[in-house]
């Protein structure tokens, strides 16, 4: 990934310290309970995250009929997966999958803030919220992708999709060559949030 969209290593440490201090204050004042905090954290660790998106993509790769349903009516296709608590609400009210092909590459951005398909991809990474990424992805998407290490041929059309409070996009990446005999579980293990947002391609090995 480009140095432009990287952050100092201790950023997480300082953020965690601030969150812990705020959490302690809210618990002390009786506004929230430690049980409620643990429940929310557990939800993001076990129910909501990129492991869901990876399962959806892997299913689409091995099942052409499911893929067609996913592209036509994404929420309905996602609902077929029977995820633990469903995928509606909590940043998943309306989601739309867009497909990468050999001719078209899709990149997802949220120019206004950081709208993101939380149920399928978890919490948005720092780079997705970066003002530079949000502005430049629209103006010069090829340059931004190159800084992520992804250089596309001039013949490939780049489409930029702007997520919003009304609709959140995610990418159905190209299935990499050499994975013809892979199981769904093996395919899902190849997926990354970056690939499902169009900032990277799926790699094998």
From TrEMBL:
Q: What is this protein called?
A: nitrile hydratase
- Asked whether the keyword Iron is assigned, the reply is yes
- Judged by the first EC level, this protein's enzyme class is lyase
Record-annotated Nitrile hydratase alpha/Thiocyanate hydrolase gamma domain positions: 16-200
Similarity annotation = Belongs to the nitrile hydratase subunit alpha family.
A Gene Ontology molecular function term of the record: nitrile hydratase activity
Q: Which domain of life is it from?
A: Bacteria
- Which residues of the sequence carry a binding annotation for Fe(3+)? 110, 113-115
Organism in which the protein naturally occurs:
Paenibacillus abyssi
List its EC numbers. 4.2.1.84
Q: Which reaction does it catalyse?
A: an aliphatic primary amide = an aliphatic nitrile + H2O
Q: Which gene encodes it?
A: nthA
What NCBIfam families has UniProt attached to this entry?
A: nitrile_alph
Q: Which SUPFAM superfamilies match?
A: Nitrile hydratase alpha chain
Keywords for this protein: Iron, Lyase, Metal-binding
**Xref: Pfam families:** NHase_alpha (PF02979)
């Amino acid at each position: 990934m480009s140095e432009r969209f990287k952050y100092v290593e201790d950023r997480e440490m300082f953020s965690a310290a601030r969150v812990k201090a705020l959490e302690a204050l809210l618990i002390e004042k009786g506004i929230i309970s430690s049980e409620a905090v643990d429940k929310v954290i557990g939800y993001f660790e076990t129910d909501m995250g990129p492991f869901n998106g990876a399962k959806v993509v892997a299913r689409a790769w091995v099942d052409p009929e499911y893929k067609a349903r996913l592209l036509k009516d994404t929420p309905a296709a996602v609902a077929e997966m029977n995820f633990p608590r469903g995928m509606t609400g909590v940043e998943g009210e309306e989601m739309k999958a867009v497909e990468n092909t050999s001719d078209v590459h899709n990149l997802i951005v949220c120019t206004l803030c950081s709208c993101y398909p939380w149920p399928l991809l978890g919490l948005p990474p720092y780079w997705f919220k970066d003002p530079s990424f949000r502005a430049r992805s629209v103006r010069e998407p090829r340059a931004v992708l190159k800084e992520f290490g992804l250089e596309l041929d001039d013949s490939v059309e780049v489409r930029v999709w702007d997520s919003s409070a009304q609709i959140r996009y995610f990418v159905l990446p190209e299935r990499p060559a050499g994975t013809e005999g892979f199981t769904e579980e093996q395919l899902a293990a190849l997926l990354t949030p970056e690939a499902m947002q169009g900032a990277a391609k799926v790699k094998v090995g």
